[in-house]
Amino acid sequence: MERRKPNPETYTLAGDLTVNRMGYGAMRITGEGVWGPPKDKAEALAVLKRAVELGINFIDTADSYGPNVSEELIAEALYPYPKDLVIATKGGFTRTGPGEWHVNSHPDHLREALEGSLERLKLDRIDLYQLHRVDPDVPYEETLEFLQKVQEEGLVKHIGLSEVSVEQIKKAQEYVKVVSVQNKYSVDYRVWEEELEYCLQNDMAFIPWNPMNANNEESMAKLEQMARKHDSTPHQVALSWLLHRAPNILLIPGTSKVKHLEENYKAASISLSDEDMQELESIKPFKPGY
Residue 230 in contact with residue 237, Cβ under 8 Å? Predict the structure, then answer.
């Protein structure tokens, strides 16, 4: 049986926020090492505006991108926001320099991060607030109690998690309704397969980051071969595979260039056959211990 255009084209997050499954990740509009302002601010603003023009209405960011820079640029480019635009942000890292990331999910830090995000994004409430990382130095229960509290305060509408196991998702569900999980996942990095399936079975969005890992020659060779078949790029094929993989997957490919944004968006129009999917899924995925 031939696969058609990956449907549905939209996903309704938590039953009340319908978004285009091809979203945008706003990490790359910052400086090198995800630190400081972008080299070309005008282009960064143009990317955000073009995303909305294309029909993208799900933008993923974080207070740590810059830090602060990504959120500030989103507000500068798009505020006042279109009514259907969903901005998801995250908290749970502190930054000390380019490429330097330190997990910090203590409630005091998360409170400061959330209040900063609200101010920078010019919002009274975050539609989707995601815990960027579980902090091994902070009792998970304390972090979850904080998320529960800010949701009760009305500062956050929905709550998501990032880089978590099924066990950690289930623990979080004792405190809050988890509506999304953002884990690293791609055609050649499928460590979190169990978590994807759990989300699919429990009406949660799965938001893969680094959607084209391509860390080995085999994966690149097959992606390039499939790209030639579909008159596309390997990156577009990798994105299309994710859209076909499961209907709850929301994509957030990031870029700092309008041209690349438009190329990414075209991936949504690629139709992969069952044979194509089997060929791509035959790629030996990365697993711990390889």
Answer: yes
Using the Cα atoms of residue 133, residue 131, residue 40 and residue 20 in order, give the sign of their dihedral: positive
User: Does the pTM of the predicted model rise above 0.85?
Assistant: yes
> Which long-range contacts (C-beta less than 8 Å, at least 24 apart) are formed by 9-12?
9/268, 11/205, 11/247, 11/248, 11/250
Residues serving a catalytic function are 65
List of domains in the chain: 12-281 (3.20.20.100)
What Å distances lie between residue 277 and 87, 129, 188, 273, CA to CA?
31, 33, 13, 6
Q: Kindly indicate the confidence band of residue 5, based on its pLDDT and cuts at 50, 70 and 90.
A: low
Distance of alpha carbon 55 from alpha carbon 110, whole angstroms: 31
pLDDT tens for each residue of 185-224: 999 899 999 999 999 999 999 999 988 765 667 788 889 9
Report the chain's C-alpha Rg in angstroms.
Answer: 18
pLDDT at 215: 63
For the chain, what is the largest distance between any 2 Cα atoms, rounded to a whole number of angstroms? 54
